[in-house]
Amino acid sequence: MKTQETQDTEEKLWSKIKNTLTVPQKKALQMLDANGDGRVGIEDIMVQVLKLPLVHIERDDFLRKEFSRKHPQSQVKAIVKTTPLQAGIDPKEIDKIADEVIKFERAQVSGISALLGMPGGLTAWATLAPDIMQYYGYLFRAMQKLMYLYGFPQIVTGKTETGFDSEMLNVLMLCMGVMYGVNGANVALRSMAAALGRGMEKQLGRFTLRRGTIYPIVKSVAKYFDAKMSRKIYGQIVGKSIPVAGAVVGGGITFFTFKPCCDRLKATLKDTALSNPSHQETIEEKKMRESIEVEFREVN
Predict the structure, then answer these.
(1) From its phi and psi, is residue 272 left (phi > 0), alpha (psi between -120 and 50) or beta?
(2) Who contacts 171 (Cβ-Cβ below 8 Å, separation ≥6)?
């Protein structure tokens, strides 16, 4: 829960942001504000980013492309039907592909961030919206690919008639928590993997991610990123006014932060019940998994 002091601080920061903006800058803010409440939170960013072309990674297509070059079609079909590990792929090969994914997505986003950070002046601040969206877009691309390599089912399914599926957003939120070291996110993701490995896929998202054991951790991650987002936006107001320095700093920060985030997620994903048959549950993971199993039985 946010303390009153934290909430007051955020109110003051957003008030300061709004008072600083010019008309073009306000339009840039509106591009990010998906729910129209005058602020930009992580859910706003996620909804906007998932609308971007090429952010959605189709699991089956991705796995076929990665493994068809070195493996027979019979094994590729098994990979798609089950997981790379279950289909007999060497874990070292999976790790190598994961590293290549991180390297590729990192190179793409770093170049774009530097390009968008180059112009100076007030009108250049409008590049903030695409800058942030591109960064998280490539982060989500890497996130999906890593999850599919290490045994997770299709995550991003596209836009529905009523908007993006809340369970899908919560899974991505949890992964972001792992990437940025938010307390409890690691345990929650491993517990989710254990539940998926026990055949709870259909009920896991519908119940647990909305109001069950994992949900409070998802909300905690969201609050962390909401605060982070407001500080980033305020910092960008200043940074975008410096032409060349804005490009150097923007691209440099992106380059150096992207890989560690992805490496943290990779480390967690490669040691779950879906990707490591020898995985040893911690006491926290066991308690959370058992709670998930109780919730699963209650809705069946």
Answers:
(1) beta
(2) 155, 192, 205, 209
What value, to the nearest 5°, has the Cα angle with vertex 46 and ends 63 and 121?
115
Give, for 275, the enclosing helix (H) or strand (E): none
Q: Alpha-carbon distance 157 to 47, whole Å?
A: 13
Residue with tokens 């909300």: 219
**How far lies 87's CA from each of 74, 151, 194, in Å?**
10, 11, 19
- 243-254 confidence digits (pLDDT tens): 333 333 344 446
Report phi then psi at 37, rounded to 5.
-95, 5
Q: What string of DSSP letters covers 72-104?
A: -HHHHHHHHHS-TTTTT--HHHHHHHHHHHHHH
Helix, strand, coil percentages in the chain from 3-state DSSP, rounded to 5: 70, 0, 30
| Mean pLDDT of the chain, nearest integer | 75
Nearest Cα neighbor of 233 from 28, 4, 36, 46 is 28
- Number of helical (H) and strand (E) elements in the chain, helices listed first: 14, 0
Half-sphere exposure of 143 (CA within 13 A, CB side): 27
β-strand partners of 245: none
CB atoms within 10 A of CB 170: 24
Mean per-residue pLDDT, 31-39: 68
Percent of the chain at pLDDT above 70? Answer: 61
Q: Which residues pair with 22 in a beta bridge?
A: none
**Residue 163 φ/ψ, nearest 5 degrees:** 115, -175
Contact 149, 94 (CB under 8 A): yes
Take residue 78 and report the two structure tokens written for it.
Answer: 């098994």
